[in-house]
Design a protein that fits this description.
Helix content is 32%, strand content 18%. It is of the alpha+beta class and 808 residues long. The protein has a domain of 121 residues. The strands form 8 sheets. The chain has an 11-stranded mixed sheet, with helices on one face. A hairpin with a 3-residue loop joins strand 28 and strand 29. The longest helix has 28 residues. The radius of gyration is 27 Å and the shape is globular. The N terminus is likely disordered. One of its GO terms (biological process) is antibiotic biosynthetic process.
C-alpha cells in the first residue's frame, strides 16, 4: 500500500507540472495545494482505509446498511425508498462527488466559474442550446405532475449534501484542490441536468449540411449519395410484421419554401460516427439452460472517472443491481430478481432548426404566418473565475425554442436567427422511468415504465424470468411529413410545424419474436412498412448485421457465448471491402518490396481486429485514404458538407466503379474507383513505412492507442494511455482511440439470476485510490466481474460495512 501511495503522489506531481503549462485560468495557491495536512498528499488513500462502522445521516427513518464487496461496489439495504435514495446520494458522493458536480456544471454552462474566461464561448453555447432551460422545465413538470418522484430526487440531494458538509479540506477530491474551488450544495435540478447532459451527448443532426448539399447537388444526387433506406438493412424491429394500430395521418404540404440562405459556415459538433451501442436478448428456446439471456454494452467516450458507477440497491420489495450515472437515482442499466433491461441510442431525428424573421432590431416579435408573435428574452448570467463582473448573455426564445446564433453570438455565421426545436426542452420525467424499471416484475411493468420516457431516445431491451424478451424504441417522436426536419425550415411558415407527436403505443416494439432474439446496434429502427416517417443521418450498417448473423446461427446459447459476442473483433466492413480493393489493385508486379509485404499481410488476414494483428492497421489507413480520394470532388463544394458513409461508399465502388462523382474534374483523364484505390495503396505504403521507422510495431493496438482520458484532458497523469485491446469503429467491440464499451453487462434470468459486468475504470473517482482504474485490465481483455445479487447478511469478500443511522 505504501508503494502504491508513492506512485499516486508521483502521478499527481506530474499532473501539477503538466497543468502549469496549460491555460486553465487562475492558478491555485501553491501553498494550500502542497500543504502536507490539507493538500493533494492527503488524496493518496484507498477507500477501504477510511472504513467507519457507523455514520449518522439526517432524515433517515430507519438504519441503512452499506456492504462493500472486494471491488468497492456498494450494496445498500434500506427499509424504504426515501432512505434508499438518500443513502444512494451519500454513498455515490463519497466516491464520485467531483465528477457529479463537474458534469452538471458543464451541462449548466458554468465551466467558466472553474477555469476562467477560456470556457466562456463553451458556456454560452451550452446555455444557448437550452440545457439549463430544459432542466428547469423538467423540474416544474415534476412539481406539477409527480411530487412523489420529486421527493425521491430531493432525498438523493440531501444525501449528497450531507456528505459535502462532512468534507474536510484534506479530504476534498484532488480536482477541487488543483482547480481551487469547493463543491456547492447539490439540488434536484442538478440530477435533472445530468440527464439533459446525456441527451446532448447522444443526439446530433445534419440539417445544415443536408440543406447546403441539397442546393449544390440537387435532390436526385443527394438521395443517391445518402439514401434514407439503403440496399441491405436489418432493422431493430424485425422486417416482417403487422403494426396493430391505426396510424395518425400526416400529409406533406403541396408547396414548401425552404430558406435560401448561403450557408458558408462550420457545422455543430456531432457524435462520432461508427461508435454506438449494442444490446440484445435471447429467448430460452435458443439457450442451453432454457433461460433468457440479456446483454448490453453502451459505447461512449472512455473517461476517468468512469461515466458509470456500479451498485446494488435493496428494499424489502426488491433488489436491483447494475450501473448508474453518478448524480441520477436508481440503476440505469441493470437487473433485479425478475427482469433485466439495457439501452442503446435510438438514432431518430428529434431536433430541428427554424429560420426566424424578426419584426425589427429589438427582436421582441417574430413572424408566424400572418401575425407577429412575442419572443421571450432570457438573461444568462455567467460567472467567470478571476473576474468581479459576470458576463450576461441575452438569449431569444421563440415558441420553437432558443435562437442559438444571433447578432450577439457568432454573428459572422450565416445561420444567425435560427431557432432550435428539441424534445429536450419539453417537460418530461425520465427519472421515474428508471425508478419503475428498478422494481419491475414483468413485461407489463417494463412497458408502463417506458411511458414516462422522452429523451434521449433509446432502444430498451428487456428480458424476464417468465421467459419474455422484448425491445421497444422509446422517446417522444414528432409526427412529421416525409423529409420534414431533414433540412432547415422557415419558422414563419406554419406548414413547417411539427404536426403532433407519435403516440407512445405506436412506438416500434416487439415481444417474443419468432426468430428467438431481439437486438439493436443503432441501425435503422424499422422497415419501410412502419407507417410513420423515420429519419436520421447516422444509422449503423455493420455491427447490427454481425450481431444478428451470429445470433441467428447460435443454438444452445450460454453466458460465455454472449461474452464472446460482446468482445467480438470481426471487422465486417473490411471483410466486405478489402477483397474488392485487392481486386482493384490489379497485378502486384509494380509494387515495391514494402508494398508486397503489406499486401501479403492483408491477403492472409482473417478480418479480426485483434490487438496483435497488423492487417487492421493497413486496411484502416488504406481505406481512409481511398475514401478521401473517392470523394475529393466534394472539396470543391463551398459551405458545410458531409461525405457518404463507409457502407454507401463501398456499394457505389462495387456497383458503379465508374460513377461520375469519382472522376476528378481537374484532370483530363477519367478516373474510376480503381484509380483511387491504387493511388491510396501507394500513399498507405509510404505513410506506413514512415510510421514503422518512427514507431516500430504497427500492430492494431499500438496504432490506434486506446486512451481512457480524465474528464479534464489537461490532467494527463490521471488518464490511462495505450490500453492494449482490439476492436474499433463499426465493430461489435467498438473500441477506438477514445470511445468504446463504457459498460458491459450479461444477465441470465433463471430461478437464480446470474449476472456479470465490467466497465473501463474503477469505482473510485480518486486518482489516489487503488479502485480508480483497477477494472481496466479485465475490461481490455474481455473479462467480467461476478455481478450476482447479494443479501444483507452476506459478509464474504466484503471490504467493510457502514451503518447509516438516523440522526436529528
Amino acid at each position: 500500500m505504501k508503494y502504491f501511495g508513492f506512485l499516486v503522489v508521483a502521478s499527481i506531481t506530474l499532473g501539477l507540472a503538466y497543468l502549469a503549462s496549460v491555460p486553465l485560468g487562475p492558478a491555485p495557491p501553491m501553498g494550500i495545494l502542497l500543504d502536507p495536512n490539507h493538500g493533494f498528499w492527503q488524496n493518496s488513500y484507498s477507500e477501504d482505509q477510511l472504513a467507519e462502522e457507523e455514520l449518522d445521516l439526517i432524515g433517515l427513518a430507519e438504519p441503512v446498511t452499506v456492504h462493500y464487496d472486494e471491488n468497492l461496489i456498494p450494496h445498500i439495504f434500506a427499509q424504504n425508498e426515501l432512505d434508499l435514495y438518500r443513502a444512494q446520494g451519500f454513498v455515490t458522493a463519497q466516491h464520485r462527488l467531483w465528477q457529479m458536480e463537474f458534469q452538471t456544471m458543464a451541462a449548466a454552462g458554468r465551466i467558466s466559474e472553474i477555469v476562467g474566461d477560456i470556457a466562456l464561448d463553451l458556456d454560452r453555447m451550452t446555455r444557448r442550446k437550452g440545457l439549463s432551460y430544459g432542466a428547469e422545465v423538467g423540474l416544474r413538470f415534476l412539481e406539477e405532475n409527480d411530487p412523489a418522484t420529486l421527493e425521491k430526487v430531493e432525498a438523493y440531494a440531501e444525501g449528497v449534501n450531507q456528505y459535502i458538509e462532512s468534507l474536510t479540506t484534506a479530504r476534498l477530491p484532488v480536482e477541487y484542490k488543483i482547480l481551487n474551488y469547493r463543491p456547492e450544495p447539490w439540488t434536484a435540478l442538478k440530477s435533472l441536468l445530468l440527464l439533459k447532459y446525456m441527451t446532448d451527448m447522444l443526439v446530433g443532426d445534419r440539417d445544415l449540411e443536408y440543406s447546403n448539399l441539397r442546393k449544390v447537388l440537387g435532390e436526385e444526387m443527394l438521395n443517391k449519395l445518402f439514401p434514407e433506406y439503403p440496399q441491405v438493412v436489418d432493422p431493430v424491429i424485425e422486417k416482417e410484421r403487422n403494426w396493430n394500430f391505426t396510424p395518425l395521418q400526416v400529409v406533406k404540404p403541396d408547396s414548401l419554401e425552404f430558406p435560401k440562405d448561403e450557408l458558408l459556415l462550420d457545422p455543430l459538433p456531432q457524435p462520432e460516427e461508427g461508435i454506438g451501442s449494442n444490446n440484445w436478448a435471447v429467448s430460452g428456446s435458443k439457450t442451453k439452460s432454457g433461460n433468457p439471456i440479456l446483454a448490453n454494452d453502451p459505447h461512449l467516450g472512455l473517461n476517468l472517472p468512469s461515466i458509470w458507477y456500479s451498485m446494488q440497491l435493496s428494499t424489502p420489495a426488491y433488489r436491483v443491481k447494475g450501473a448508474t450515472l453518478p448524480g441520477a437515482l436508481g440503476v440505469i442499466s441493470g437487473f433485479n430478481e425478475q427482469v433485466a433491461w439495457g439501452v442503446t441510442n435510438a438514432t431518430k431525428d428529434a431536433r430541428d432548426w427554424y429560420k426566424i424573421t424578426f419584426k425589427d432590431a429589438s427582436r421582441k416579435s417574430y413572424q408566424y404566418g400572418q401575425e407577429w408573435r412575442d419572443a421571450t428574452l432570457r438573461l444568462e448570467e455567467i460567472k467567470i473565475k478571476g473576474q468581479e463582473t459576470a458576463f450576461v448573455d441575452t438569449v431569444v426564445y421563440t415558441h420553437y425554442g432558443p435562437v442559438v446564433y444571433d447578432r450577439n453570438f457568432r454573428s459572422e455565421r450565416q445561420d444567425v436567427n435560427f431557432a432550435l426545436k428539441w424534445t429536450l426542452h419539453m417537460g418530461s420525467n425520465e427519472q421515474r422511468t428508471f425508478i419503475l424499471l428498478n422494481q419491475a416484475k414483468n413485461h407489463q411493468d417494463y412497458m408502463a415504465a417506458l411511458d414516462h420516457y422522452t429523451a434521449p431516445a433509446q432502444n430498451f431491451v428487456f428480458a424476464s424470468n417468465e421467459g419474455d424478451i422484448a425491445m421497444r424504441i422509446q422517446g417522444k417522436f414528432p409526427l412529421k411529413w416525409e423529409e420534414q426536419g431533414k433540412f432547415f425550415m422557415d419558422g414563419a411558415d406554419p406548414k413547417m410545424e411539427w404536426q403532433d407527436f407519435i403516440p407512445y403505443e405506436h412506438n416500434p416494439s416487439t415481444l417474443n419474436p419468432e426468430r428467438g432474439f431481439v437486438s439493436s446496434a443503432n441501425q435503422h429502427p424499422v422497415s419501410p412498412s412502419y407507417p410513420y416517417y423515420v429519419f436520421d443521418h447516422s444509422y449503423e450498417h455493420y455491427r447490427n448485421r454481425r450481431i444478428n448473423s451470429q445470433l441467428e446461427a447460435m443454438d444452445q446459447v450460454t453466458v460465455e457465448n454472449m461474452m464472446k459476442l460482446q468482445f467480438d473483433d470481426f471487422y465486417l466492413h473490411a471483410a466486405e471491402a478489402l477483397p474488392l480493393m485487392i481486386e482493384f489493385l490489379g497485378s502486384p508486379d509494380t509494387l515495391s518490396e514494402k508494398g508486397l509485404s503489406y499486401l501479403k499481410e492483408l491477403k492472409a488476414w482473417d478480418f479480426y481486429a485483434d490487438p496483435n494483428q497488423k492487417a487492421p492497421t493497413l486496411f484502416y489507413v488504406w481505406w481512409n485514404k481511398a475514401y478521401l480520394s473517392l470523394w475529393s470532388n466534394m472539396n470543391e463544394i463551398k459551405g458545410p458538407k458531409i461525405r457518404p458513409n463507409n457502407y454507401q461508399t463501398y456499394q457505389l465502388m462495387k456497383d458503379e466503379p465508374g460513377f461520375d462523382f469519382f472522376d476528378l474534374k481537374e484532370t483530363p483523364e477519367i478516373e474510376t474507383a480503381q484509380d483511387h484505390i491504387k493511388k491510396a495503396f501507394a500513399e498507405m505504403v509510404q505513410d506506413m513505412s514512415t510510421w514503422e521507422s518512427e514507431n516500430g510495431d504497427y500492430s492494431w493496438a499500438n496504432y490506434k492507442q486506446t486512451t481512457i482520458q480524465h474528464l479534464v484532458p489537461q490532467f494527463a497523469s490521471f488518464s490511462v494511455k495505450n490500453v492494449y485491446t482490439g476492436g474499433g469503429s463499426g465493430i461489435v467491440n467498438a473500441t477506438s482511440g477514445r470511445h468504446g464499451a463504457s459498460w458491459r453487462m450479461i444477465v441470465e434470468l433463471g430461478e437464480e439470476v446470474k449476472a456479470f459486468g465490467i466497465y473501463p475504470g474503477g469505482q473510485s473517482g480518486n486518482p489516489g485510490s487503488r479502485f480508480y482504474q483497477n477494472f481496466i485490465p479485465k475490461w481490455a481483455n474481455g473479462e467480467y466481474l461476478n455481478f450476482n445479487l447479494r443479501n444483507s447478511d452476506e459478509t464474504g469478500n466484503l471490504l467493510f460495512s457502514n451503518t447509516l443511522n438516523p440522526s436529528e
